[in-house]
Amino acid sequence: MSKTNDAGLSKAAEAVGSFAALARALGVTKGAVHQWTRVPAERVLAVEAATGVPRQQLRPDLYPVE
Q: 4-32 pLDDT, tens per residue?
């Protein structure tokens, strides 16, 4: 069974070049990032800071566009 990453997580990885680069930017293992199907709520602000991808795109369920 393959898992699918959501658009926000994919956009964040693309912004820094790869999932491995995203992991390095966050100070976590690439294995941790590969386990995510979306950006965890507690990591949204750090991912936004590291990638420039707005929190509304990373987790629109938590940060709806106003």
A: 679 999 999 999 999 999 999 999 999 99
The CATH number covering residue 24 comes to 1.10.260.40
Phi and psi (nearest 5°) for 51? -115, -25
Please indicate, yes or no, if residue 62 is contained in any of the structural domains: no
For the chain, the domain total comes to 1
Assess whether pLDDT exceeds 50 at residue 1: no
Q: How far is 31 from 29, CA to CA, in rounded Å?
A: 5
Helix (H, G, I), strand (E, B) or coil at 21: helix
